Amino acid sequence: MLDVLRRIIQEVNGARSLEAALATMVRRIRKAMRTDVCSIYLFDAERERLVLMDTLGLHSEAVGQVSMELGEGLVGLVGQREEPLNLEDAPSHPYFRYFAETGEERFSSFLGVPIIHQRRMLGVLVVQQQAMRRFDEGDEAFLITMAAQLAGVLAHAMATGTLTRPAQADGQAMFAGVAASPGMASGELVVLMPPADLNSVPDLIPTDIEAEITRLHEAIANVRKEIGVAAARLVKRISAQEVALFDAYQQMLGDAALGQEVEKRIREGQWAPGALADVVKRHVQYLERVDDNYLRERAADIRDLGRRVLAHLQEDSPRTPDTFPEQTILIGDELSAASLGEVPRDKLVGLVSIRGSSTSHVAILARAMGIPTVLGMVDLPLPRLNGARAILDGHRGRLFVRPDAEREHHYETLIAEEKALSEVLEHEQDRPSETSDGYYMPLMVNTGLAVEAVASLKSRVGGVGLYRTEVPFMMNERFPSEQEQTRLYRDQLESFAPLPVVMRTLDIGGDKDLPYFPIDEANPFLGWRGIRVTLDHPEVLMVQLRAMLRASVGLDNLCILLPMISSIEEVDTALKLIDRAQRELAEEGVKLARPQIGVMIEVPGTLYQLDALAARVDFFSVGSNDLTQYLLAVDRNNPRVASLYDACHPAVLGALSHLAIESRRLQVPASVCGELAGDPAGALLLMGMGFEALSMNAPSLSRVRAAIRRVSLADARTLLDETLALPTTAAVRAHLRQRMGEWKLAHLLPPDD
């Protein structure tokens, strides 16, 4: 049964439209379960009714015509209760309702299961049989599993606007992902095509069909030549059976095989790369479903050939255009830092990616540059988006494709208001971040960028609260040498002197890999990351520590921060290495005082080790992003649970308040460098708790400064007391928005839904 289930799922996922997926589902389920009827009802939220969308066994004319309210009939009962219903004699059930259009009066047995995706009831999947029998546990489990799989297909169809019609290029659509950089933008989508990726080729109508066919044949000829050369080179090293594989490749590439099908697809109105991708994917899906093991293995051969031909086609099709729209929203499967450089900065207004996370290199750069960004958009159909009009909401992690006039007008107003607000706030950026009752709240900047990108901030901040040393490591093709690192760190320290610069030691792992030092783990956020990596590789950490210390000579504004601390032993080991680096430099004639040493409070366990930590280090720096995800057991980069991640969760605020109280008792300065510090309302809470500095990305400085300058410390403390008494995240957010509104500061917050 598992094999049958897998094949049905493959076929459904390969369907080109929702209708095709539903038709496949009812046909294959009815056959697999040997029932007389299989039907799918979908929930129409606007009408609040379940509508029969496809069936095999009931009258086909009932499709789209028969509907019922939740709680009406057996199907409505399943939808209302959101649990399976298994009946031997359905007509005798008190909720049974007869619909003459369906012709279901002759069926006795009934098994219905709800289709649920992320707590939302999307529909009901039903099988029926004439004979009176109760479906067994295996049948029920199978149908529940199929409904769970169908839920994903339906959720994607709802997101892409194809719920009640085949996929169209001109329909409105909304997609959700992980908000990686705040802000809003409207513009034109430009799809970045990774080379030789069959799943990321957009659909385009060819302007010259014959030219596309010529391109195709030239690409196929080049691949045939490459395969011939490879076969000749290996003929003496491989067996006759393996040589035969090269012959099979040549046959598949023949005009009467792959080429002919692709040419036919081009003449139907698809450009060469798209036609190739369509044909190859169709063959692969078919071969992966057949029973014959040999033929299933050939699916990989077809896929490989398709990529080879596509690579040649893309030689004439640049990944990015020569010119870009005035307002470009760059979109791709996985955007890199280099991708940002391909678009002129004055034209790049937003970034969207299927892969990536809120702590990836792209996300870090986007936040520093103030570019709205949404990542982890797993349901994104790239092939149909190139050139489409779109709105990007980086506050909520949403992308609206081909929005209607009402939505476009709504967001144009919000974007204009954001721009006007930024211009107004710019006028007070050189003023102190001091409350209305005279309390000075130091604001610092998070950075990892080149000096010229942040040097202009010196007069506006109290220093660098977090310098991410991993950013230069990410941009390199190898570990940078001690001399290279010394130059980088010296530039940062000199640019902000005499202000303090907090340099975090290399923090990789989790979702931050180096291309030349990959870390592949099943659960990376609970694995080898941060200080765990560098203590296991002291040769890397020692080079970095020596470079930091050497760079600070004569400046005395270096502070060293140790990330991902979870035990006292880690701190002790790191301190010994710092002392050793200092001794080694002294032996070389480089003498300097020991810098301030701090630890990041981001692993919840450290909250219970503060006394021991305070005896060893000079300051605490709270990484509220990781502390939140670890306290709540929520991967903030997983779109399925990203909505559960919120630093304003009562447990997180309680932990932060406890930490602030304890740090004052221990007389150890504590600051916050996570995203909560860059939220105007969150900054007021942190100030009320008593944190001594807030560090944030540069674009957040103006709003946070404006909030602090307009609220007294006394009011911030009152706000904190009120907020800590609230039981839910929703209540906290609502209260913060209410109080900000009362203070005439609601405009500093992201727009409300």
Concise account of the structure shown:
With 753 residues, the protein is of the alpha/beta class. It is built from 25 helices and 22 strands. The protein has four domains: 1-160, GAF domain (Beta-Lactamase), CATH 3.30.450; 173-191 and 321-420, 3-Layer(bba) Sandwich (Glucose Oxidase, domain 1), CATH 3.50.30.10; 209-314, PtsI, HPr-binding domain (Enzyme I, Chain A, domain 2), CATH 1.10.274; 429-532 and 552-563 and 598-747, Phosphoenolpyruvate-binding domains (TIM Barrel, Alpha-Beta Barrel), CATH 3.20.20.60.
Please tell me about this protein's structure:
The chain has 25 helices and 22 strands. By secondary structure, it is an alpha/beta fold. The protein folds into four domains: 1-160, Beta-Lactamase (2-Layer Sandwich), CATH 3.30.450.40; 173-191 and 321-420, Glucose Oxidase, domain 1; 209-314, Orthogonal Bundle (Enzyme I, Chain A, domain 2); 429-532 and 552-563 and 598-747, Phosphoenolpyruvate-binding domains (TIM Barrel), CATH 3.20.20. An eight-stranded mixed β-sheet has the order 7-14-13-9-10-11-12-8. Strand 5 (109-117) and strand 6 form a beta hairpin. The model is unreliable at 161-170 (pLDDT under 50).
